[in-house]
Amino acid sequence: MTTHQETNSADTPAGLSPAALDALMPMHLRISSTGHIQSVGPTMAKVRSEDELVGLRLLEVFELRRPLHVHSFADLLKARTSEVRMRFRVGYPLTFKGVFVPISDTKSDGALLNLSLGANVVDAVEHFDLTSADFASSDPTVDMLYLIEAKSVALEESKRLNKRLEQARSAAEEQAYTDTLTGLQNRRGMDAVLQQLELSGMPFGLMHLDLDYFKQVNDTYGHAAGDFVLQRVAEVLNDETRSDDLVARVGGDEFVLVFKGCVDLAILEGIAMRMISRLERPIDFEGQECRISASIGTTLSSFYEAPAADQMLSDADRALYASKDQGRACHTVFSPDGQNAH
User: Fold this and answer.
1) Residue 69 to residues 100, 110, 156, 161: CA-CA distances in angstroms?
2) What is the pLDDT of residue 105?
3) Rounded CA gap, 76 and 67, in Å?
4) Rounded to 5 degrees, what angle do the CA atoms 254, 256, 257 make?
5) Is domain 9-126 annotated with CATH 3.40.190.10?
6) CA 66 from centroid of its chain's CA atoms
7) pLDDT for the residue numbered 117
């Protein structure tokens, strides 16, 4: 069996060496006078291995679609030089265009068929992992591949840029909604969550927590101690809430907690009392004991026919100050009938 690697220059058209023929026509097929494939170019061998092609009849491998009046290899030889359209009979459905040229020399008769990929070049390049090296340098396909590669590079760069912009946007948005000292949500973050809850109709409980004796810590030990205490408070509040709940620092020593889907006063009372108990424990800062406590006011969305964030915040604030009036370190629930109840 003869392959393009074994053909000598005397057996190739115009005495071209196999290497020259491969460079000029990387998708060529050399065909004997009987219509059998004798050798194939390197790109054709990449698309369909030589073992699948060499030795077979041309029209066993390819379906001839143009010229329309040709039905056999003998007809092709009679037609002399012909523009052809062909496709594989089996396997990946590649369609080719090319030129068929009968050859007659002192060695043998037969033909040379030079094919190109035509309109399906993009699919073929992707499917068979072809590169510009698989085409003759004069083939317009090379220019197309450069354009495809340039477009691919530009697309990838655009994706990377969009990803960086999205990350930057997310970081900026997170920063805009985050209290830098404690890492909790800030008032803007709280407003966004409450607006979503208003629109969704999901029930929720809302607590307003204010630290007791925090001013004394700042005045006695300095702002560094106050900042440390606020960070410790944030840890306690996060510990006592779920990941879906909101914990926001809305003032110097004021916090709002939103419990999504929870309007059970017994559960919220337990959470409030645990937070108060934990915040009454001394907080050590550089050998100094910082002592605070917390007063809490709570209201529930179920108290209202149409819950509104501003009204609920105001009512939770009223309940909070009722806790202050009772001696601090207390939890008070807002009563819709106007009577605050512990």
Assistant:
1) 15, 20, 47, 55
2) 62
3) 9
4) 140
5) no
6) 45
7) 84
**What digits encode the pLDDT tens for the residues 142-197?**
666 666 666 777 778 778 878 887 777 766 666 789 999 999 999 999 999 999 99
**Of 188, 189, 195, 196, the residue nearest 310 (C-alpha):** 195
Alpha-carbon distance of 227 to 217, in angstroms, equals: 10
Q: Compare 84 and 337 and report the one with higher pLDDT.
A: 84
Residue 11 above 60 pLDDT? no
**Among the CATH numbers 3.30.70.270, 3.20.20.70, 2.60.120.260, 3.40.50.150, which is that of 187-333?**
3.30.70.270
Please give the Cα distance from 293 to 281 (Å, whole number). Answer: 8
Predicted TM-score (pTM) above 0.85: no
Pick from 342, 235, 225: nearest CA to 291: 225
- For 10-49, letters b (16+ CB in 10 Å) and e give ebbbeebebeebbebbbbbbbbbeebbbbbbbbbbbbbbe
Helices (H), the chain: 18-24, 42-47, 50-53, 58-61, 73-78, 121-128, 140-176, 187-200, 214-221, 223-239, 265-279, 309-325
- What is the distance between the alpha carbons of residues 206 and 265, in angstroms, rounded to a whole number? 11
Residue type, 177: Y
Domain boundaries, the chain: 9-126, 139-176, 187-333
Q: How far apart are alpha carbons 190 and 151 in whole angstroms? A: 44
Report yes or no: 26 and 43 within 8 Å, Cβ to Cβ.
Answer: yes
The 3-state DSSP class for residue 61 equals helix
The C-alpha atoms of residue 204 and residue 129 are separated, in whole angstroms, by 57
Amino acid sitting at position 219: D
Q: What is the mean pLDDT of the chain?
A: 86
Q: Quick one: what percent of the chain has pLDDT higher than 90?
A: 53
Active site (catalytic) residues: 253
pLDDT at position 3, please? 47
More confident residue, 5 or 280: 280
For 65-80, b/e burial (b = at least 16 CB within 10 A) is eeeeebeebeebbeee
Whether pLDDT at 6 is above 70 = no
